[in-house]
Specification:
78% helix; mainly alpha; 223 residues; single chain; flat
């Protein structure tokens, strides 16, 4: 398979595009509802079951388990939450980050693609950035970040070579896909390293979903 340096740079650039869109959207949501999130977190985390639900809910809205975790750690340092309560919230946050995969599968990799209306969404959000009153600017960041996220996913999908055009890729991956339990351990390691490098489990998940839909890896190893 001929995979040039330029194609590799395009792949990395598309991944960066995706991560930046998620960052902009996450920061916009935090600005819009940051204080409310803190209030919900401090009240509901007192119960372990509610703590897991709270972590799930906040991460689903913020689309960032890292943001939820940082918030929880700051609460523990301030003495507002105990260590046990914080663990339940972080557990919920890790469950909540799977909502990203659902969104990507439904709107990014399915039949209906948000990327086709991404530019109109940006057109709506762009003028809002110049409104100084209220939270208009923050909502603009949410809209623009949401559109950039799915545009990045579209470029990410285009940057990964199609298996039908590059059948040699299957032979290369088959060296690691048929080793039983070792294959699972290898791909768990790859996922861990990828998330450490990009500092985003959502970005790693998006890249994995794209590789799975393109036929690079089977569903079991993608999981």
């Amino acid at each position: 398979m001929d995979f040039t340096v330029m194609q590799l740079l395009e792949l990395v650039g598309a991944l960066g595009f995706f991560i930046y869109g998620m960052k902009v959207m996450s920061e916009g949501i935090q600005k819009v509802a940051g204080s409310k999130m803190r209030g919900i977190l401090s009240v509901m985390a007192s119960n372990r079951v509610f703590g897991v639900f709270t972590g799930f809910l906040i991460t689903s809205l913020l689309q960032s388990s890292s943001a939820t975790t940082v918030m929880v750690v700051s609460f523990v340092n301030a003495g507002l939450l105990t260590l046990v309560e914080s663990v339940s919230v972080i557990m919920g946050a890790n469950i909540g980050t799977t909502v990203t995969a659902w969104l990507l599968t439904l709107f990014g990799l399915g039949k209906f693609k948000i990327a086709t209306i991404a530019l109109p969404i940006i057109a709506i959000g762009f003028p809002m950035m110049f409104v100084r009153r209220g939270s208009w600017k923050s909502w603009a960041e949410v809209l623009i970040g949401f559109a950039l996220l799915f545009l990045g996913l579209e470029h990410l999908k285009d940057s990964v070579p199609n298996l039908k055009e590059n059948e040699q890729a299957l032979a290369f991956l088959s060296n690691y896909a048929n080793m039983g339990m070792w294959s699972t351990l290898v791909f768990v390691g790859v996922g861990t390293i990828l998330t450490l490098v990009v500092q985003s489990s959502s970005a790693a998940m998006a890249l994995t979903l794209v590789m799975c839909t393109q036929g690079w890896i089977p569903f079991e190893l993608a999981a």
